[in-house]
Amino acid sequence: MPTEPENAQDPSHPAAAGFGRRGALLAAGAALAAGLGAAADDLARKELTGRHHPTPAAPPAEAAAPFHGPRQAGVTAPQQPATQLLAFDLPQTSAAADRQTLRTVLDALTRTLAAAASDAPSDARLQSLGTTRLTSLVGVGPGLATRLGLDVPAALADLPTFPGDRLDPARSGGDLLLQLCAADRWTLTVVAELVATAAGSAGATPRWSQSGFLPVTTPGTTPRNLFGFKDGTSNPAPAEDEQFVWGPPGAHHDGTVLVYRRIRMDVAGFAGLPADQRERTIGRRQGDGVPLTGTAEHDDPDIYAKNPDGSYVIPANAHVRLTSPRLDGGTRMLRRGYSYDDAPTDRGLLFCAFMRDPAQFTRVQNRLATRDALTPYLQHQASAVAYVLPGCAPGGSLGERLWT
Amino acid sequence: MPTEPENAQDPSHPAAAGFGRRGALLAAGAALAAGLGAAADDLARKELTGRHHPTPAAPPAEAAAPFHGPRQAGVTAPQQPATQLLAFDLPQTSAAADRQTLRTVLDALTRTLAAAASDAPSDARLQSLGTTRLTSLVGVGPGLATRLGLDVPAALADLPTFPGDRLDPARSGGDLLLQLCAADRWTLTVVAELVATAAGSAGATPRWSQSGFLPVTTPGTTPRNLFGFKDGTSNPAPAEDEQFVWGPPGAHHDGTVLVYRRIRMDVAGFAGLPADQRERTIGRRQGDGVPLTGTAEHDDPDIYAKNPDGSYVIPANAHVRLTSPRLDGGTRMLRRGYSYDDAPTDRGLLFCAFMRDPAQFTRVQNRLATRDALTPYLQHQASAVAYVLPGCAPGGSLGERLWT
């Protein structure tokens, strides 16, 4: 049994979310063998049955993350090619009645998500996939927390308005925020329907929904946004998650705060810039993600390095300068962005970042909104903040510690 | 401009680990070369560089299909998880001028698609993928063919209106129809932008665009639609393609006709039926796709088999009966459908089928529209037909044989 029971019981260990390393290696090896045999297998089937067999791509290499555990899997599980965010609102009657509704909704969501992520999902469509590879997270918004007097981190609050914001309320906020991730959009479409049915039956109302995606690339590489640049290089180290991502020891230790921004990007406009100007705008090389002051992608950008003429190598308005952890005492947020494409003129980034204190995002965004060289190519169109609840054990329910 | 002193100590500065990181990259590369797999690479990077590396799924196993050849790759290449359909219109001035515009547009599309599908795409964003695995096809609509007197199959014609059709003209038809397929939506978003730019510069106007997807499953298996049933089981055998899919010997031998229908599905409604009723509606078992009269998925459904009480085993209004090739003298169409999910209440199937003569689709759809037990759960919302052009050699252009 390729598990690491001691680590898995220790929520401060990076493996706590359920990614036994040996398990991952075994799964990768099996997938590799399957991949090598796939073409021969396909050929054999074609010859034997004499029919076209439409052939989707091979399944991904990683093992699925379990639903149950001290922390929800959707925060640190490896990113997958497809995501769907779903927001719901709860009725506003009396605090006592609404607290009961919230309990009922969270129970229903817990059952639905646990079943969908299990090796034996109850839905016939999901059964056909073998494993759904679903990871998910459920969070509560600051408005609901205040209304119902929930035990959430004191730092949980709506974001301020930033210069240039063009937020659509119908795509923003919400009492409950879910993020689903899987290997493909098909799975998410089915699970999103199950989630909507479960939440609706329990009394919640859909508020907005947003799908996103990543390029399928070699595992271990940083995914790219639609500008073609790597996005997420300077995330915290797993050991730093305890300090920057997860709550302090206490009731919120296994929770975190998700900041979501739907950012429309002028993809064609940015692509029309000369290559060197694109790279000076970001502060990294496009091809390999290396900072303009470095030699490897994960070199820290040296925002103080100067050219012989005295100018900064990484320009004063470059994106990596303004987002540099050096300007925030070394604090890092865990960015897990996805691209979206809702129409030929509506493409961009679903910025999703996890942090202990959303004030960190506010500091960075205040710098970006006024000085970032990328700003002419970006428009923030939606925003949400949520306290991502601690996980739960089998038989338990998400949100067990919300009630003071 | 940062106000921190230039010698500010950065607690996360990894200078001491710099050499180790390069060593880690070398070690990771060696591990990859030794075939130990991507997870080992990822693990090595995580442990030695101390940074989160978001990890999308592994790349698919099959080799990419080349763009150039006698036939366009998008017709019979293995289906991939992501598709995008794009329709364009051409100006209507004089036949001579419009023919020149069409030539210019087809030249531009050929260059753009060939470059995007090559091992060395010119776009910096696509370069980062290594290979895009793009497959594509370009077709011309019946209206354009008539207007410009193009040499297309005589059978190319708009479809008639079927009972129950609720077609949106803004999502239907078009002078030019493209289908792009790739391993992920990210690639398609980038390529669709390149295509739109190229077509627009040459004089075409975007008409509609539609994205779709398949579940990522084991290669060689038939993909499922959002009802959870396998879709495409009874496609022609590759040897039958010459008879049913590709044109007869002559000018159109390397072309085919694409019939596209955007079919909204009442996914939740159908899922709410009892399992046996779902299977009698389709005529196949949901889990394995086996016809109700058979023991293996690829058994031909026996539409004449009866129960002891005299009723048909496959009911009279079952979907597989009404689509049975036995009712069309054995003729089969090559179905390559994709699911779509444009909103929680707008999900369904992008029916895409290739055939020599679109009258075949008309015959089948006339049966389905009036008698299919699935009809209450379906609504046809868009429609298009296109002559999929023969392929072209390197240096050539799609549509070389359109000019009579």
Automatic annotation (TrEMBL), chains A, B:
InterPro entries hit by this protein: Dimeric_a/b-barrel, Dyp_perox_C, Dyp_perox_N, Dyp_peroxidase, TAT_signal
Recorded GO MF terms: heme binding; metal ion binding; peroxidase activity
Entry keyword set: Heme, Iron, Metal-binding, Oxidoreductase, Peroxidase, Signal
Domain of life, per lineage: Bacteria
Region: Disordered, residue numbers: 45-78
UniProt domain Dyp-type peroxidase C-terminal: residue ranges: 222-392
GO cellular component terms, semicolon-separated: cytosol
Domain Dyp-type peroxidase N-terminal: 72-213
Cofactor(s) essential for the protein: heme b
Keyword Iron: yes
PANTHER family, per database record: DEFERROCHELATASE, DEFERROCHELATASE/PEROXIDASE
NCBIfam families: Dyp_perox_fam
Similarity field: Belongs to the DyP-type peroxidase family.
Annotated protein name in UniProt: Dye decolorizing peroxidase/deferrochelatase/peroxidase EfeB
